[in-house]
Amino acid sequence: MSATDLDTAHKPHRLLTFNILRYDPKDPASTPRMQQYRIEEAESMTLFIVLNEIREYQDPTLQFDFVCRAGICGSSAIMVNGRPQLACRTLTRDLPDETTLAPLPFFELIGDLSVNTGKWMRGMSERLQTWVHAQEKEIDLHRIEERMDPDLAEQIYELDRCIECGCCVAACGTAQMRKDFVGAVGMGKIARFRLDPRDTRTDDDFYELIGDDTGVFGCMSLLACQDVCPKSLPLQTQIAFLRRKMATMGLEGVPFVSRFISSTC
Ligand code: SF4
Ligand code: F3S
Fold it and tell me: What predicted TM-score, i.e. pTM, was given to this entire model?
């Protein structure tokens, strides 16, 4: 054991204070209020452990979401001192003595820290048709899959790592002003399917889906999406690329600009 380990082992555990926003929208008698809980910090403690201990030993009515506890399901996203992040991946040692927890804004509130990200993600997916649009009507499940260039597969995989946690939407100023904004998550999905050679949709089709203020032209490049994405997805690069592409396509219909584009591109 190193000197630093010994130091940490003998450090007295902090008494942590959590101020949690409580509200049950289904209960007409409920009004939003902050409730305070105190808990002794333990080694390698995460917010997942904190919330479970509070529910187990102090308050069985506290609502919050968890499934995998490993940063894969995306369901534990909450506001931690004003910043969206995954509770299961947040260590208390990175937090001050007093922490405020609130539900993600923008999404439908189920109660306390629990929000219905799934409902919004499904609506966004249906609206943007986030699945491979293959040419064949009948899929032959026994056919051997076609080879894909490894570099391209890697690029698609990179964007497919999205866990639909909702942090990027909760952090985005545009999303707070426009309820119909598809968010960085939606544009990231379009970027993913645009890359996929099995998807037969054209850029015109993608323009129809995100070529307006609810998509690439609504984004004000506030950059918070990329700052908070727990999977460090390259959201900014993708959004900027799509916006440039869609802007060029939109301008192609204007005769003078169209001549300029074809003489310069
Ligand atoms: Fe979460 Fe990142 Fe996906 Fe947004 S893009 S939903 S922050 S994983
Ligand atoms: Fe929002 Fe990200 Fe654009 S924070 S405004 S989607 S750059």
Answer: 0.89
